[in-house]
Specification:
This protein has 15 helices and 11 strands. By secondary structure, it is of the alpha/beta class. The chain has a 5-stranded parallel β-sheet. A 4-stranded parallel β-sheet has the order 4-3-5-6, with helices on both faces.
């Protein structure tokens, strides 16, 4: 353990000794969830400090209706469904994109929207449908691809829009009041785009501290130190503990691109339902690149697997080990929900890094 980590751990423990209750914080970002486990940071936390995972895994929050729509689109003749790899194995009502690919459907894993757009250029007799999943981090790349398709007259490219916005989901969790939260460890990647100032209305309205942190062990511990200090001092604010990467105003180029290509719309989230103003749709000048419109596909109702508790996990209502299917009926080799599929999924992180230790810690808290 290096000196910086040890110092942050000791400071965190000293602060928590001052508290006369349990402090519950949420790490919003799926990358934080995995990094906290992988680096062993959770094992350093004081007994009265509890971290719960939030809706920060883009694969996990994607509503089942969008998964089913992607699978339906992939069955159309002369369609190539291009997707990031994490979406391939997410179960829908009719199987998964991976299963469809095994049956002969044209499903391609791509590393970027650029690859998907180039695929459309090279396959003029096929229509490439890009599965646009992710938060403000990946949405600018989708917007750039749509702009380029528009500029170059590429009509065999379109997007199934599933992009989401982080701050409205944080507000929806607080409005629901199902999970008591003392503050948020905010996502570093998203914050690079939206900037620290984007969280200020949330803090002003709900009086909950938000601290932006990086992904190294010392950075995450320092972020938790800042959060606990704010909780104890009862002075909620937005604090940027990742200043070398995150600015107050965010990435102006990316934000301008989002504003040009998309409009903010109500969006369905797994478990959270329709959250007002929490998603992105294509602006009218680019509406012809909307895959649902192009193929006249209607979104259905969400029909999740009856054993899957992913929705409760991503809202902090449930720990993975509380789900009766965890590590039994649901494993990484045979997942029944997205939280066990995604590399940023909470269930996958618990299974891979912290199943035994985390379950033991949870048992101690309940005793």
């Amino acid at each position: 353990m290096n000196a910086g980590i040890e110092l942050a751990r000791d400071e965190l423990q000293a602060l928590c000794r001052r508290a006369n209750r349990r402090i519950q914080l949420m790490e919003v970002c799926g990358t934080h969830t995995v990094a906290l486990f992988r680096a062993g940071v959770r094992s350093l936390l004081p007994e009265n400090l509890r971290l719960v995972s939030g809706p920060g895994c883009p694969v996990c929050v994607t509503a089942q209706r969008h998964i089913d729509a992607a699978i339906e689109l992939a069955t159309h003749p002369n369609v190539i469904l291009a997707t990031y790899g994490d979406m391939l194995r997410v179960p829908g009502r009719r199987g998964s994109l991976e299963k469809l690919r095994a049956e002969g459907a044209q499903v391609r894993v791509v590393g970027s929207t650029r690859v998907a757009l180039d695929l459309a250029r090279s396959q003029p007799t096929q229509t490439v449908v890009f599965l646009g999943v992710g938060f403000e981090t990946t949405a600018p790349a989708t917007g750039a691809a749509v702009l380029e398709a528009h500029r170059d007259g590429i009509e065999n490219f379109c997007v199934l829009m599933c992009h989401k916005l982080v701050v409205p989901a944080m507000a929806a969790l607080l409005d629901a009041g199902d999970v008591p939260l003392d503050g948020f460890l905010a996502p570093g990647h998203v914050s690079v785009i939206i900037g620290a100032a984007a969280y200020r209305p949330l803090v002003a309205r709900y009086r909950k501290p938000v601290v932006i942190a990086g992904f190294e062990p010392e950075q995450m511990l320092n972020g938790l130190v800042a959060l606990v200090r704010q909780v104890l001092d009862n002075r909620p604010a937005v604090e940027n503990a990742y200043p070398g990467v995150v600015s107050d105003a965010g990435n102006r180029v990316a934000l301008d691109l989002l504003q040009r290509v998309f409009v903010i719309a109500d969006a369905p989230w797994r478990e959270l339902g329709i959250i007002p103003h929490s998603g992105l749709e294509l602006a009218p000048p680019f509406a012809r690149y909307d895959a649902l419109r192009k193929f006249d596909v209607q979104l259905g109702e969400d029909e999740n697997h009856p054993l899957c508790r992913c929705g409760e996990v991503i809202c902090g209502k449930l720990e993975p080990c509380d789900c009766p299917a965890f590590a039994t009926a649901c494993t990484p080799l045979a997942p029944i929900g997205p939280c066990m599929v995604s590399s940023e999924g909470t269930c996958a992180a618990w299974f891979k890094y912290g199943r035994v230790d985390a379950a033991h810690h949870l048992g101690e808290e309940r005793s």
